Amino acid sequence: MLFRSEAFRGCALEEVQLPPILENLGKYSFAETLITEITLPKDLVRAGDYTFAGCSRLRKVTFAEGNTTITGRMFYNCPSLTEFEVPAQITTIEGYAFSSCENLTRISIGKTVTTMKEGIFYNSPNVVIVTTSGSEADRYAQKYSIPVEYVKK
Known about the structure:
Strand content: 15-25%
Strand order of the largest sheet: 7-9-11-12
Distance between the termini: 39 Å
């Protein structure tokens, strides 16, 4: 099952429960909606870029075990995201995933994330990356001069 690009873009949706058999979310599927939280099903193979872009009330996202990628600009301009914990099964964070999240102050990224693309936190000036020393997230923080807080391994 798939939701096509822009399927619910701009709708006044406040809550949604995705079907467990959903495999694909097209670009902008839930962009500019009023949802506050969402759980991505385990069968989801791919979420398109900008999936939740401009969701001004989005505060909580839960990834089921099957999901491995946070796609490009997935959470672009989501001002209600203040903290985010990248789940252990995520291995890739694509470009500009959290760009323009001006109120994002803390993101925890574990050592399972091995690929981090350019501009993930572009125009998100208050973010601090919480990670382990020597991880990909640590290298990324150093490369882009993002404050980092270390946790014990």
